């Protein structure tokens, strides 16, 4: 990883402002604080802190706790800027500023007034994946799609702007990406037939700069038919329109509610698009481009450099929104700029992030069965495409037919819970779901603001496995192989954190914070927090002492039954029945737990 070297070079040349947000870039180099949910622009979720290490982590103790005052699913993590910690909540998206110098006293509290009618429109719980800090401002993208800039010292609103319309099903669950003088944001709502987009706003004023749609006409997608490429070739005119029937692209999905990465050297940012609408594949023949795809775009103009569609004509709701982790590693003896992506569809992809060439595409859970492999033979007519197994094709089996035993389930081998990368081990640490499903599509009619799903699902632990619903794995992205795997009773829905102390942290749905050895996966420490953990583990220092923090608060798609009080096994898009046993291990909560070594 060369970000420190790159920063020094930029400062020497006096060009930082032109290439990245100087304030954000500088602060992401300082492991004592955290200003982005992803820790750095490369999305590595790696901390250089090593005071807590593999030898002493067993001595961790709870240092302090904080109640958020909100129930439902707590995703994302706090930020720490200097001596202030910023904590966010699910709907109504309260933000707290806590004084670390004064017993975590609340310095200010921002509580937006949002219309509660947005709650039932949020597909899979009222989660929010957190804040970002840039140039003295805290940036929040609310559930109702209001984007807000808050003065980091006072909590006063600098500006706010509406990014979408909840009345047609547009909501937000994601964090934001501050790049240069812009704030880049996505949108949720593919289950309501919205048309996904990425939008850039001026960081100082909130004025909209550009918007790029996931599907539709070239000019609205901000693609160039001759210069934007896919698998090395120009995408050509109307590349999206040609893969939809009639005007179906107008309700085509492709939401953008995941994580965003940025490469200052290439000046490209990366993200994934979600499922096409509806979930019934029979109703939307064609590849449905560019849903289920990875985009590389220029942050100044929004123009797409390259696109790669992972799951053409999705038949299983395998959203492609999971994080893109940027690393510089050797492939066949030559150093290359890489992008590693653990997709919902069960394949882990390693791409050259400069040009979008696919180098590796392998299953990161052996039970994945909907496709036999991804064809990486450049001479093949199926180059870059997954080879679908007919038995598990919900399209080939048809409407009102229950296709059984599909692995993974719709929530994927990994959902939004972000993986981490350690430059010390050259391994990726991945929280996974070990879950399969039955899937029955049915005809559905589009009505603005109403669910546009068209499938009934049931989920269950992968048959023939260890009996649990999750694994925490270490992955080699060059060989495409699992190095070690720790079984878990439930899906691992928490984001991982890798550290220079040779420790990897993650949380479990029952509520444990766990620490494992980065080389072997051996469990070194665990502590049961107040509620299920679907937040992302973070670390910081204060007055020279390292702390580890995590939000507890069960929910998200996996915990939606508990979070929303649902009992019908098919509710929560199939998750309620699959995770019914979770209620025996944890309950609702909203708490930050902070750990440290004893004095």
From TrEMBL:
Gene3D superfamilies xrefs: Quinoprotein alcohol dehydrogenase-like superfamily
Enzyme class: oxidoreductase
PANTHER family: QUINOPROTEIN ALCOHOL DEHYDROGENASE (CYTOCHROME C), QUINOPROTEIN GLUCOSE DEHYDROGENASE
Transferase recorded as keyword: no
NCBIfam families: PQQ_enz_alc_DH
Family of this protein: Belongs to the bacterial PQQ dehydrogenase family.
Highest taxon of the lineage: Bacteria
Gene Ontology molecular functions: calcium ion binding; oxidoreductase activity, acting on CH-OH group of donors; pyrroloquinoline quinone binding
Keywords: Calcium, Disulfide bond, Metal-binding, Oxidoreductase, PQQ, Signal
Binding site for Ca(2+): 191, 275, 317
Domain Pyrrolo-quinoline quinone repeat residues, every copy: 40-360, 492-548
Cofactor stoichiometry and binding remark: Binds 1 Ca(2+) ion per subunit. Binds 1 PQQ group per subunit.
Name of this chain's protein: XoxF
Pfam hit, one: PQQ
Entry's Gene Ontology cellular component terms: membrane
EC number: 1.1.99.-
Binding site for pyrroloquinoline quinone: 75, 129, 173, 189-190
Disulphides: 123-124
Residues at the catalytic site: 317 (proton acceptor)
Leader sequence segment: 1-20
Names of required cofactors: Ca(2+); pyrroloquinoline quinone
Record-linked SMART domains: PQQ
